[in-house]
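Re: beginner question about structure tokens

> Can someone show what the tokenized structure looks like for a real chain? I only ever see the sequence side.

Sure, here's an example I had lying around. Input first:
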Amino acid sequence: MRSASISKGVATPMLTALILGACFALVPPVFAEDTSTGAPPKLLLQIPDDAPGERCARIEPSPSPMPQTVLLQRTFQDDFDEHPLRSGRWVPHYAGPVVMPESFYAGGDGSELRRKTRYNGEQQIYVDPGYEGRGTVPLGLDPFKVERGVLSIMARRTPPELKEVLFNSEYVSGLLTTQQSFSQKHGYFEIRAKVPVGVGVWPAFWLLANNGGWPPEIDVIEGRGQQPGDVVMTTQWRNPSTGLVERCGFDFSVANAWEDFHDYGVLWERDRLVYFIDRKPVSEIKAPGSFEDPMYMIVNLAMGSKVFGGVGFVDAQSPPEVEFQIDRISAYQLESALPPAETATR
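And the corresponding structure tokens:
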């Protein structure tokens, strides 16, 4: 099982750099050039103009605008006006380093490896209407709901009669990835969403290298279900001199994040990564040298974790149904990098 290469927020003894900042409340925005809630064709973001440090650091609120402006052009947009599996942008499972025929992912014992990440201790299985589980006929389970331009990824307790055919998973839920349709090197990646809460609830929007390897990994946002309003933004990479996996990131407290939509994004430049909440920079890190390949986007709602604090295993207190609401997902390319962004889009 290639568990590490499709894991999210994996905790492992191999990690040699772990810097998780204490939670702090976000102040009113002052840094962003564009304060709209939409995804315009062009976007201006302001970031520090000094050289990034070796370690990640919080960007403290300041009354003065930051001097460096980054101009971006939109390369990907989904407003979720239709079911996500109709657009051709998304597939509802991991593909892995080698893309197999779709029948491989549709059912059978081998399909479980691309429908959950056991290494993390996840207790859900990712389904779609055509998924067969261990059986030979589609089960008709649809974890995706679209209403008024909002996508909801729904996690529900597995019906008892389907437990065995669904590998005894406690929940059925959904995952979407652009690995087979869109990837990009450098640029800005953003989700506008509400972050659900509850025991065992683990929503995320993240990026992986399109070559199927792990790391690198960019966790744009992960929610700690047992800590309402606590969101985590993390960078993971492999140290070339030691071969060890390292990670660095921070927790942020976002008021009413489970009730209100907020924008969560990351700007990936040649020399740094900058994380944003509502298009205001909140942390940064020098870009690791291993960040060389285009990356694709993943959005999912996991249930249960043995490695990610503040999530825990599902139990009797876990909600019978969880809804991860997503208003849109967008990607932008650095204006100076165009037209190469077009070649990064498959």
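Each token stands for a local structural state, so reading them left to right follows the chain. The longest strand covers residues 321-334.
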